[in-house]
From TrEMBL:
EC numbers for this chain: 2.7.1.-
Name assigned to this protein: Diacylglycerol kinase family protein
Location, primary (coarse class): membrane
Enzyme class: transferase
Topological category with respect to the lipid bilayer: Multi-pass membrane protein
Matching PANTHER family: DIACYLGLYCEROL KINASE (PTHR34299:SF1)
Membrane spanning residue stretches: 35-68, 98-119
Record localization: Cell membrane
Pfam families reported in the protein's UniProt record: DAGK_prokar
Organism, scientific name: Olsenella absiana
CDD domains in the cross-refs: UDPK_IM_like (cd14265)
Family: Belongs to the bacterial diacylglycerol kinase family.
Keyword annotations of the record: ATP-binding, Cell membrane, Kinase, Lipid biosynthesis, Lipid metabolism, Membrane, Nucleotide-binding, Phospholipid biosynthesis, Phospholipid metabolism, Transferase, Transmembrane, Transmembrane helix
Amino acid sequence: MIPGQKENHPTFRRSFLFAAQGFRTAVRTERNIKVMLAGGALAIALGVACGVDLLGWAAIVVCCGAVISAELLNTAIETVVDLVSPEFHPLAGRAKDIAAAAVWVLSIAAAVVGALVYARALLG
């Protein structure tokens, strides 16, 4: 469905406002988002300090965006799991653990990419 096409569907602009509201809520309430944003800021500062080239900046931006997006998705999954299963259930725990593992794997990959980008900038 195209945004704004039905009476009760938000306009395209309003959809962006909802997204911004979701981001603000996550930053305000979730510790891990703050950690990821701090890591992104550190990656940018290191990039400036190391004199990273254009391709390196592209890799840094994509990795930071991917990790932050994955953490936002993980937060959304955990929120939905908590909604549908307020009591502990092994499957609910498994779903949350697997979603967190996805962020962990992506974070490791991003760290490796970062190490390669910074090494290339410093040694090349």
